[in-house]
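Review this:
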Amino acid sequence: MSLLSVDDLVVEYHGTKVVRAVDGVSLDIAAGEVVALVGESGCGKSSLARAVVGMESPREGTVRYRGRPVPALGVRKRSDDFTSIQMVFQDPNSSLNPRIRVGAQINEGIAAARRRGAAASKPEEWLERVGLSSAMAGRYPNSFSGGQRQRIAIARALAARPDLLVADEPISALDASSQAAVAEMMRVLAIDSGAGLLFISHDLAVVRLIADRTVVMYRGRIVESGVTEKVWNDPSHPYTRSLVAAIPKPDGQGHLPAAPTSAERERWLDVVPEALDRV
């Protein structure tokens, strides 16, 4: 049984018109596996992530964690069984309480893990695991840089001892020099704990460093999925090929690939993906 199974998922938003953000997506994640979900902004990656953790209700399809449907997050506290699903958001300012010391916030994750029978730990230990000083536990979030706050958010999520960690663009707000380091840190910490990691990004260059499998999303649909090196070296879908081609390559001339035309992008929707590698 897969740790996470998503089957034919549809997520829609209703306003002046209906927007289908996720259009029939299926994917699996095994324990100890890092799966990257890549695609441009607006393709539905975040909507899929929010549905996986119960923050969005599917219009159709199912999301199952260890074979059980993931319940919607509401005003009531989530049962302890599902606190082993944790999410790291793109903006740590939206997930850290500015009025509570960071040590106390990490303690919330520790308490959730303890209720499921995990061994005791301390906030200072988790700060050190994400490369910060244990002395920072008594400080408030506004005394940290953006990159440090993101590390604190990761520490809090990991302190809950998750079996499944969903990271939605967790490095996009970081400076370029630390993005790869933080991504690699998340991989190591997740693998060491045996957790599955769904790492969402638009950056294929970073994804190549950390992901076992890569899933490519375009306009709400999965158009390619497979072992990361295979997707990188031999992409089968024209959209994936455009993503790989758009990664700057040092040629000494400053050349950039030509952007695809609108007509080309429309034709991509008609390309039938090869058999998708779900596990």
Remarks:
- The two ends are 10 Å apart (CA to CA).
- The CA atoms of residues 145 and 245 lie 33 Å apart.
- The beta strands are 4-14, 18-29, 34-38, 60-65, 68-69, 85-88, 164-168, 196-201, 213-218, 221-227.
